Amino acid sequence: MDTFVVAVLVCGAAVLLDWLMGEPRRWHPLVGFGRWASLLEQRLNDQQTFPAQSLLLGVLATLVAVMPAVVLAIFLQFLLEGWLWLLTQVAGVWLAISLRGLAEHGRAVSTALACGDGARARLAVGRIVSRDAAVLSDEGVAAAASESMLENGADAVFSSVFWYLVAGLPGLVLHRLVNTLDAMWGYRTPRYLYFGRCAARLDDAMNWVPARLTALTYALLGNTRLAVKCWREQSRAWDSPNAGPVMAAGAGALGVTLGGPAPYSGGVKQRPLLGSGQGATAQTVEGAISLVQRGVMLWLLVLLALAASLNAFWSGGIG
Known about the structure:
Elements: H1 2-21, H2 29-44, H3 51-79, H4 82-97, H5 99-114, H6 118-125, H7 138-185, H8 197-220, H9 224-234, H10 243-254, E1 257-259, E2 262-264, E3 267-269, E4 273-275, H11 282-314
Antiparallel strand pairs: 1-4, 2-3
Helix pairs in contact: 1-4, 1-7, 1-11, 2-3, 2-7, 3-7, 4-7, 5-6, 5-7, 5-11, 6-7, 7-8, 7-10, 7-11, 8-9, 8-10, 9-10
């Protein structure tokens, strides 16, 4: 019981630290991990191998990439104690969520769009999405940024909090590193189709529950009826089992239409429409940012209430 109360307080402290400081501009652990993962991929991803061999090499690369950090997190639970262990957990959650950084990236797009500077908006959105930003219309830029806010809010923020609460620092580290590998290797291209499959499927499994909690959060904080309708009717058509519910519910909550055809370097990808209503604008990006931020506040309030209730129950205050 006490462990849960401490975990909730750690999450609150990490969110406060993120609000005050944002993410580190230099020496971010995920940047170093990305370099390590790239090196592994270059060494192990031999595209001349058969599919089964490529799949096995992808499993090996995933294990080699994530296990040292996960094992270190497990050992830290036993090596550290008191305030030092508490601060280590706060730092871990802070480095994982990047809530302020997400908002800053989104606002770089919305501010440029609101000022009528489409070129700057396309440059800004190109930093957060993989589609061909140079050919996007202003509505396409706004939609891309809004989708990124909604999906990354689920992947980086809510899923990180969920796995920290469920499995502590080791669970948080495992989730965040697997999610990073999925972002790097989880593509259905000849290079990554088999090699990245382990990371992609593991990421799908770890995000299944948090994605649906995120979709519910978005629905509660916006147009609830429309969000639930879009979630129920549209999410299965999306190619990702977790992004579909999150973005369908988010689009419905905002009362806008997202999805649709998207240009990539390899051509235009035909995607189903999500949500209902007008097309995306700068205000849509701001609305998506607000959904994530208010969602975090809602989670913290619910968790604090739950922690207080459990504490009262176990201390004899109930019954």
